[in-house]
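Morning run. Coffee first, then this:
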Amino acid sequence: MSNIQEQINILVEVQGVELEIHQADRLVNSLSNEATALDQTMAECEALASSEKAALDDLKKAYRDLESEAKVNAEMIVKSNEKLRAVKTNKEYQSILKEIDEIRKKNSSIEDRMLEQLETIESAEAAIKAKKAELAGFVQSYQEKKEAFAAKEKRERQAVEALNEKKARISATANPEFITVLDDVKKKVRGLAVVPVQQAICMGCHMNIPAQLYNELQRFDELRFCPHCHRIIYWKEQG
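And here it is:
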């Protein structure tokens, strides 16, 4: 095997490892994105639970306010009844009775609102209880998934590290000038930078190369490039 052929084999091997690194990096990014999406869903669930709890607190406060108002009105009725015993004219008596009646009507309206508020509070509490149970299940699932993602991501990062070391070892056996050429070609083309030619067809762009170039490839005396896509090309014997 000629030195050029050996060097091309090294470039192909380096390229293969780079593809593995790229795939592993994509998996790491995918796992990271999934973990981020999971965190976001968790944050949204917690925010919703917090919002519903705050709404329930507001309902309870409004109920307590109504309760306080009803209590004040009840005390006013007691005081008004006490005043009745001290009145000396029928006009005063009728006026206080009217005052008591208005307070009672007001309290009746407040009590109706309190009942409605209680029903709303009970419904909200039932909904929050159900959501808490649902959230508890999600939290457990969230923690398990996070641990699984973290473990997978750690394995993939270790794999990337090992592949980078492998690439460094292989690259060290290559002619530095060829590695530079490989890097230059990678910047200019999409996909593979080193491709075989089979039956005079470049496997990178699938275009026919000139017959003379095809014959020259088989000599493995220098690096050659596809005249169409400018990838590094090499002759590969048909299996």
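Strands lie at 194-198, 201-202, 224-225, 232-235. Good start to the day.
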